[in-house]
From TrEMBL:
Gene (name only): lepA
Keywords: Cell membrane, GTP-binding, Hydrolase, Membrane, Nucleotide-binding, Protein biosynthesis
Described purpose of this protein according to its UniProt entry: Required for accurate and efficient protein synthesis under certain stress conditions. May act as a fidelity factor of the translation reaction, by catalyzing a one-codon backward translocation of tRNAs on improperly translocated ribosomes. Back-translocation proceeds from a post-translocation (POST) complex to a pre-translocation (PRE) complex, thus giving elongation factor G a second chance to translocate the tRNAs correctly. Binds to ribosomes in a GTP-dependent manner.
PROSITE patterns: G_TR_1 (PS00301), G_TR_2 (PS51722)
Taxonomic lineage: Bacteria, Pseudomonadati, Pseudomonadota, Alphaproteobacteria, Rickettsiales
Protein name: Elongation factor 4
Membrane topology: Peripheral membrane protein
CDD domains per UniProt: EF4_III (cd16260), LepA (cd01890), lepA_C (cd03709)
Family label: Belongs to the TRAFAC class translation factor GTPase superfamily. Classic translation factor GTPase family. LepA subfamily. Belongs to the GTP-binding elongation factor family. LepA subfamily.
Length: 598
């Protein structure tokens, strides 16, 4: 098919604004998939995506649509809406010429709406505004249009009113895609140039490479070269998604599809790389692709040492399917052999942890999440990066510490503005700008990353009854007073719960953690002390009371001394148990201890 009849577009929106549902309606009208095989969230291939009702991985599908008796090829990419997966959005936009911006007609513009549409504007996309959920009684179409124009500056006179649930307005959207989104630039007679959009592992065919062909053609038995690594492979098969994999003879300029080439090393498939013919020594790398940046780090250790190899294989498979998740071998004196892992955010961490448990049946100990700190050591001011609290050196050798800061854009109804400001202040936030848009307010704050990646999002949703939203970007590193807090259970340090944070928040955070552990750890027949310490100083403590067995129940006579003798014997036994007994911290406690309770 010629490039003038091709349209490549992404579907972008805030979380829960109806991207996947609208994609389902578009697929019903333009895909070869049979209606009996249709299901909700057809592009969400992961079980956890269906359970949580969110999109984690961007997915693509080719649609065929006839407009005015001319056949068109529409390549749709459904993108995630959560801030943790904004990298998936930027990656998808690079492969397209246009975007469908979905805005919930009952909620209006949200923080992630702003972030995604600005990414689309930076990519020079033609943007089609779609007001979704217009069938709901609470929809306020005119107010939302005004909100979009005031906040984003996009004309909404041609905005489409759609109900993805009922299908109203979807045919008109397909017409608008053909008329408004430009066809891709490129020539199939030029030298081969391909953008590597994504790569993942398939147990049947090996590594699958998702591509956008910029120029030239790619077909089976061709020799291609990865520019970043110089690796050369022979193409086995090329194909498209309908949404199931469908093998085709070739992919030409402007098309989106995939190929396989018996690739065994994922490191050769660098996301954003440029692929050319094996004998091409003149082409340059295609610019404009955003590098992934992990911001949250923690350790994964097998609960049982015999599961180490199984955990290693499971992480390898997860990494093949999600290259934004990284890991490396790591050993701990208290936890044994495990892995140090990097994530895009706390939701990303939860998703990977849940997949390990449900898909691979592996119980893991998850250490306290941390961000990356810059440490400068005495006497030569040597710089090192610390991601793990257990690697934190003695404070006497540290000259200074720098922590990462972000610029956060928070959108909230005006009525919750005071609570949002108080939350930002409690997180050491610095106010930058306030903008009022109708009954909503946009607050821009600079905040320490360590303060917001763990519980800020949940707290914001809780205090605003779910109406506020946040989007943030990493800005710089600043000097800070960071301390290491050890959690002691029954006088033994729990390495998995050791964490770093600012000294001003050490007491309050430690107290909350001790209280949550008290709720999560099962009671024993002896008292269990839960303590938080900085160095040798205890800053917080909770006590789990012991079960009390009634040892005097068997007494039926005699004087008081018999009862006191039995109670004293029981007391000594409890002390011996406390000295020798071990306390098992449940896996659920390790996960929940750093999450805010709603």
């Amino acid at each position: 098919m010629t490039t003038k009849n091709i349209r490549n577009f992404a579907v972008i929106a805030h979380i829960d604004h109806g991207k996947s549902t609208l994609s389902d309606r578009l697929i019903e009208l333009g895909s070869s998939i049979k209606l009996r095989n249709m299901k909700d969230q057809v592009l969400d291939s992961l079980e956890i995506e269906r359970q949580r009702g969110i999109t984690i991985k961007a997915q693509t599908v080719r649609l065929h649509y006839t407009y005015k008796e001319i056949d068109y090829c529409l390549n749709l990419i459904d993108t995630p809406g959560h801030v943790d997966f904004s990298y998936e959005v930027s990656r998808s936009l690079t492969a397209c010429e246009g975007s469908i911006l979905i805005v919930d007609a009952t909620q209006g513009v949200e923080a992630q709406t702003l972030s995604n549409v600005y990414k689309a504007i930076d990519a020079n996309h033609e943007i089609i505004v779609v007001l979704n959920k217009v069938d709901l009684p609470s929809a306020n179409i005119e107010a939302v249009k005004s909100d979009i124009e005031d906040t984003i500056g996009i004309d909404t006179s041609t905005a489409l009113e759609v109900s993805a649930k009922t299908g109203v307005g979807v045919p008109q959207l397909l017409d608008a895609i053909v008329n408004n989104i430009p066809s891709p630039q490129g020539n199939e007679s030029n030298l081969l140039r391909i953008l590597l959009v994504d790569a993942w592992y398939d147990p049947y065919v090996g590594i699958i490479i998702l591509i956008r062909v910029i120029d030239g053609k790619i077909k089976g038995n061709m020799n291609i070269k990865m520019l970043s690594s110089g690796a050369i492979y022979t193409v086995d098969k090329v194909g498209i998604f309908l949404p199931d994999k469908h093998i085709v003879d070739e992919l030409s300029a402007g098309e989106i599809g995939f190929f396989t080439a018996s690739i065994k090393v994922l490191a050769d498939c660098k996301i954003g790389d440029t692929i050319v013919s094996s004998n091409d020594n003149t082409s340059e790398v295609i610019q404009g692709f955003q590098e992934v940046n992990q911001v949250v780090f923690c350790g994964f250790f097998p609960k049982y040492s015999d599961d180490y190899e199984d955990l290693k294989k499971a992480l390898e498979k997860l990494n093949l399917n999600d290259t934004s998740f990284v890991y490396e071998n790591y050993s701990s004196a208290g936890l044994g052999y495990g892995f140090r892992c990097g994530f895009l955010g706390m939701l990303h961490l939860e998703v990977i942890s849940e997949r390990l448990e449900k898909e691979y049946d592996i119980d893991v100990i998850v250490t306290a999440p941390s961000v990356k700190y810059h440490l400068y050591l005495k006497p030569d001011n040597k710089k090192i990066d610390i991601q793990n609290a257990n690697d934190f050196p003695d404070p006497s050798v540290i000259d200074s510490i720098e922590e990462p800061w972000v610029e956060a854009t928070i959108m909230s109804p005006v009525e919750y503005m005071g609570k949002v400001i108080d939350l930002c202040r409690s997180k050491r936030g610095e106010h930058i700008k306030t903008q009022h848009i109708g009954q909503r307010v946009v607050l821009i704050y600079q905040l320490p990353l360590g303060e917001i990646v763990f519980e800020f999002y949940d707290m914001l949703k809780s205090l605003s009854k779910g109406y506020a939203s946040v989007e943030w970007q990493l800005t710089d590193y600043r000097s800070s007073d960071i301390v290491k807090v050890n959690i002691l259970v029954n006088a033994e340090s729990v390495e998995a719960l050791t964490f770093l944070l600012h000294s001003t928040n050490a007491y309050s955070r430690s107290k909350v953690i001790c209280e949550r552990l008290k709720e999560s750890i099962p009671r024993k027949q002896y008292k269990i002390a839960i303590q938080a310490a900085i160095g040798g100083k205890i800053i917080a403590r909770e006590t789990i009371q012991a079960f009390r067995k009634d040892v005097t129940a068997k007494l039926y006579g005699g004087d008081k001394t018999r009862k006191m003798k039995l109670l004293e014997k029981q007391k000594k036994g409890k002390k011996r148990m406390q000295m020798t007994g071990s306390v098992d911290v449940p896996h659920s406690a390790l996960i929940s201890v750093f999450k805010i309770k709603k």
